[in-house]
Amino acid sequence: MVPKEVNACPFSVFHQRNWQFVNEFVKGVLRTSYVDCAAQVLDELTPYVSLAEKLGRLAIQLVAASGVKNVKVSYSSARDGDDLDTRLLRAMIIKGLIEPISDAYVNLVNADFIAKQRGLKVIEARELCDGSPEVPLQTIVIKIANVQSRFATALSDSGEITLEGRVKERIPHLCKVGEFDVDASLEGSVILTRQQDQPGMIGIVGNILGDENINVNFMSVGRIAPRKEALMAIGLDDEPTQAALKRIGSIPELQEYVYLKL
Prior knowledge:
It is an enzyme of class 1 (oxidoreductase). Pathway: Amino-acid biosynthesis; L-serine biosynthesis; L-serine from 3-phospho-D-glycerate: step 1/3. There is one protein chain. By secondary structure, the chain is an alpha+beta fold. It has two domains: 51-185, CATH 3.30.1330.90; 187-262, ACT domain (Alpha-Beta Plaits, 2-Layer Sandwich), CATH 3.30.70.260. 31% of the residues lie in helices and 28% in strands. The chain contains seven helices and ten strands. It has helices spanning 4-7, 12-25, 39-62, 87-98, 111-117, 201-211, 242-249; strands at residues 70-77, 121-128, 139-144, 161-168, 171-177, 180-185, 189-196, 216-223, 229-236, 254-260. A hairpin with a 5-residue loop joins strand 8 (216-223) and strand 9. Helix 3 (39-62) packs parallel to helix 4 (87-98). The longest helix has 24 residues, at 39-62. Mean pLDDT is 86; it is low at 1-19 and 32-38.
């Protein structure tokens, strides 16, 4: 429904189109007919919009308690800074950070206002990197400082919860957690585990999930070195039962684990 005051506006057709665009956008639909923007621009941004929101959702679930005040976001791109407008991405990061822990409805129009209301400051930085300027972004990095983490492995050497993501073949991927490189497709929920790198760990966790009839869509392992500490990311199509999570948590070789819902 378009607000009465928008209908009354002398530019109501323009405003109604943008209002409808915003409302459909926050539901995951980008329609080029509602905005004065080239179709190819919206098309190339779509997977990055999804990546931004999902990184925000993952990051806030890693925080052990409330009180997030400052979030650092770094955008790495081969494009000149003037050609990289991050307002849309920032709005979706805020959406991902706030909606899972509140009843707020965050969209492109109100994201900055809601963040300010809640005392959340998003500090953005842009980094020029090698690569093709045809690609809007190489990576997005989110860092949350001065908080405890439900998953200590997500803390970087600086003590910040750190997540890095990129888009591969138009699909959002998690590519770094803390100091561990990983390659996890963000198309479903994720279980992260930390353990000593040794044979059989993938099979042990996979068997537990199979016993509980939980479908796995990927498994990825990042490690410091052979037989050293490793991070395993398991993508799930189905929400795991408490029984399954309890069984995973009881695996002696696991140092810690966390379930993150997208």
